[in-house]
Amino acid sequence: MLFNVSGLFHEGIGATRRHQVEGTLYSETREAEQVAGEVEFLRTKAGVLVRAQLHLEEPEICSRCLQPLQETISIDFEEEFRTIVDPHSGEVLEVGADDDIFFIDENHQLDLTEAVRQYREASAEMQPLCRPDCKGLCPRCGQDLNLGTCGCSAGPVDNRWAALGALLTDTEGKE
User: What is the DSSP string of 157-172?
Assistant: First the structure.
């Protein structure tokens, strides 16, 4: 997601551009994700303010039943990208050691990839579900409980709960 913003710098502060985004986001830690949406670039004194409204189609795995699913993530952000080269003189500007700033390279190329990746990570579900009422897997045999019940006994999974499980079976027998 690379954009040449040299024309925007020559128009002056306040100039804007809108672009439709449709592409693929590649990451070292995730599968490729489809990205679509719109970005607006606004020329500022120090660089370019980016306003983005994007949607990502992300392949995930349900945290309960381990079935694959497609998750749609909406990302809206505003970030200022600072230039490292004066657009008129070509002189290299002093850049601070602040790691939270996104930069426009010396060729006036603005790369949205890292900003989109960071906002995607912040917006992603921590425990994605295939559906809100997903029953998950049986802790004993691994049967997908969404497909039906398993043949396991309804006893406790952890021995520390065995005494409580025995009380439950005693009360069921008295009724």
Answer: SSGGGHHHHHHHHHHH
What residue numbers bound the domain in which 96 lies?
A: 2-123
Both tokens of 170, joined, read 């005693």
- Calculate mean pLDDT across residues 19-36: 85
Cβ-based burial of 122 (10 A; exposed 0-12, middle 13-18, buried ≥19):
exposed
Residue 129 in this model has a pLDDT that exceeds 70: yes
State both tokens at 134: 């997903």
Does residue 76 lie in a domain region?
yes
Q: Tell me how far apart the alpha carbons of residues 154 and 170 are, in angstroms, rounded to a whole number.
A: 14
| Residue 9: partners with Cβ closer than 8 Å, 6 or more residues away | 43, 83, 87, 88, 108
Task: Report how far residue 21's alpha carbon sits from residue 151's, in angstroms, rounded to the nearest whole number.
Answer: 50
Question: Could you give the number of structural domains in the chain?
Answer: 2
Q: What is the mean pLDDT of the chain?
A: 84
Cα separation, 58 vs 77, whole angstroms: 18
Report the candidate in 22, 16, 90, 24 with the shortest Cα–Cα distance to residue 50.
16
pLDDT score at 74: 93
